[in-house]
Specification:
The chain has 136 residues and is mostly helical. It folds into 2 domains: 52 residues; 51 residues. The chain contains 2 helices and 2 strands, in the order ββαα. The protein has a two-stranded antiparallel ribbon with strand order 1-2. Strand 1 and strand 2 form a beta hairpin. The radius of gyration is 28 Å and the shape is rod-shaped. It is found in: Cytoplasmic vesicle, Secretory vesicle, Synaptic vesicle membrane. InterPro entries: Snapin, Snapin/Pallidin/Snn1. It comes from Tupaia chinensis.
């Protein structure tokens, strides 16, 4: 009986290329990870959207506080609160940038996984193996 890394032999005695155990494992692992990568990407996208909404709300609140501060006849010192809001906005923008970079890396990883899976499928379908692979 042929092992996972050996090629089968046809009735005419010519070798018939088949998937190796390593190729099957790699493809299975890629297919196993794909849903997790896609789910993580969708969660990062949702967080980024909420970060943008939060930043807009902070901007609106800071603008409103400045307007209230200018309209008040009694001097209220809202400057510390405005500064806190602007500091919070800066942190939100920073987190959003970090998430954007992580999402871009995740998108590139997902693209690479899809490309490698397609390449391996094409090799398996055509029976062509790279030099040095056990499928020869």
């Amino acid at each position: 009986m042929a092992g996972a890394g050996s090629a089968a032999v046809s009735g005419a005695g010519t070798p018939v290329a088949g998937p190796t155990g390593r190729d099957l494992f790699a493809e299975g692992l890629l297919e196993f990870l794909r849903p997790a990568v896609q789910q993580l990407d969708s969660h990062v996208h949702a967080v980024r959207e909420s970060q943008v909404e939060l930043r807009e709300q902070i901007d609106n609140l800071a603008t409103e506080l400045c307007r209230i501060n200018e309209d008040q006849k009694v001097a209220l010192d809202l400057d510390p609160y405005v500064k806190k809001l602007l500091n919070a906005r800066r942190r939100v923008v920073l987190v959003n940038n970090i998430l954007q970079n992580a999402q871009e890396r995740l998108r590139r990883l997902n693209h690479s996984v899809a490309k490698e899976t397609a390449r391996r499928r094409a090799m398996l379908d055509s029976g062509v193996y790279p030099p040095g692979s056990p499928g020869k």
